[in-house]
Amino acid sequence: MTNTNNTLELQIQDMHCASCVGAVEKALEAVPGVSSAQVDLQQGRATVQGEADGQLDRDALLEAVAAKGYPGEVVDQPLTPVALRSDLEKRQHDAAHRWKWRAVLGLSIWVPLEIIHWTLEGDWVLWLLFLGSTTAVILVGSGFFMSAYQAARARSTNMDTLVSIGVLTAWIYSLVLFILWLADVAHGQMTYFAEAVALLGIISLGHWLEARSSAQAGSAVRALLELQPEHAERYEPDGSTRETPITEIREGDRLLVRPGARVAVDGIVVEGESELDESVVTGEPLPVIRRTGEPVIAGSMNTTGRLVIEASVAGTATTVARIATLVTKAMASKANVQRLADKVSSIFVPAVLGIAMLTIIGWSIAAITQDDIAIFQEGVIAAVTVLVISCPCALGLATPMAIMVGTSEAARNGILVKSAAAMEQAGLTETVIFDKTGTLTIGRPTVTSINADPGNDEEQVLRLAAAVETPSEHPIARAIVTAAIERELDLAPVTDFKSTAGQGVSGMLDGVKVEVLRDATASCRVNADGKQIGTITVADEARPGAREAITRLHQQNVSVSMLSGDRQGPAEEIANIVGIAREDVHAEQTPESKNKWVEGCQSQTMMVGDGINDAAALAQADLGVAMGNGTNIAIEAADVIIPGDRLSSIPLTIRIARMTRRAIRQNLFFAFFYNGSLIPVAAIGLLGVHGPVWAAIAMGLSDTTVVGNAVRLGWRLRRLNKPESDPAA
Fold it and tell me: Is 435 a known active-site residue?
């Protein structure tokens, strides 16, 4: 991402959990001039969007997050795929190492203390419990306490708040009993020094397992980033080659790509011929032959021949870099269900603190009523258990982990999902609406007939039409121009060229106003100074795989419609070939009528198109999907981009999205069921005197269950490249 006056990217430090993310987002959104902020915990990045006519204040943004205890800095240069991969790996390694160290230290202290506590007797045992517990609280607990302190400074709470209060309550309560014992005051109560250490060790172990699972779940992103080499073999002015970092590659540089090497930068072949594996972008496993003059894509594997390419972009602006940017941006965004989970999490911690307080009060009243100090002790332990068992880590992980896996695995198949909301919406799709030309068809129509009106001849009709269509990029225009070139016709230069989407083009040729307009009986009507001189019919062929894609959509219980600007006859002909029912064909549509038709559709819609005339409908649909070979306007208007020649990616997108949504629902169920069912169990003391230990174990299992389910999702999604056993999934 490139920073502008209206958009900034920040690197944020010291974020540990979903509550930290929420605190940073709230701090940034409170800064004047900020319209929205998205924070990605995995990357430690915040993307801040300013108001339309405003300018973001960098210093104010950094001061806002620093005041909440999260130092940051502005990212002025976008990271290359290599740097992004290194940064991601470092963060995941550091997180796993940090929690591993705490877990090993905490468990190494707890296990001996617990054994000694229950097997040996003597004054020295209590001293050992005190010293060992205090050591663990200082060394292992410091990370939890610092995080909770930063949240308290910012007048907020987070998950570490609950852990810190639980651990300190158990330790301080035990310390009071220890002091009373030193003062020879008999109390007969059990200390919880060992249990305080157990909380720290087991929770740290859970976080370590979570960090390892998160790294495994993010392997698809790292694999994607690994596709672009760190260096390219660039030709020097003297004709020699030199290994050059991709950050130094500039547009126009000539690069050598040897057999077995990956293409480092998007470019054009200027010498050689070879088969390239382009599955990095297209998802198509079969190699394609690339010759002189043809484009190659960064990340493609050169399998056979030697190629010399000319870079068409800088080394930091390759297709892989753009894919990485889209995927990481999608990972940082939030689905609607995640926003709900965030709202729940924001009030959950204060609510739990209230429940813990009520637990203490309730048990204290019972202790006073029955005049039994042991009941008060049970109440303290019950409150500690509530605090520990209520940590909503799993709730904060439920959606982001599944979205990270879903979007990165989709990217492996060449499907670029721009946001978490788009992934969520794709899973709700009930109706897919296809444009015809260039979407369901290959987009390379040919002239099949030319009908000249009396007083004119075919060559004259074609010559004028081709001349005025030369500036146009429409597939029909290209077909007409190609036909004129094949007949070796001389084309006069056009002036005052004008294109009207859905209607046609016009221009001046040697003082004559020529119009090529949509016609009811042919592909187009050719007028000269307002008078028709003939018609031209252009035909296209269905895109390979279109019928199979539509069959799969029907198997997924998705209805399919066609919106086309073409005439009814040709539209129905293509529809019949690809398997769309006649009643679902809507021809002779203008961009305005396409937009209106999509707006009036009652079901959840996915619009698939590739041209300028599809942009409005793409934006109007619940989900817009652009073909990768489409116009920039269509791609900008879309929420999802698929490989240009693979309509099979449409049902695959829906299937991936549905599986991702299912995983999210499962994760949220695990999280809500865990907290909702165990809090009352803990509050009334059913977990017994060792409740805090069982709570720590359960909390760790909850986190690893959610993350493990995301890893399982990734494994299932990778199987989608194999023959489908359940087409309707």
Answer: yes
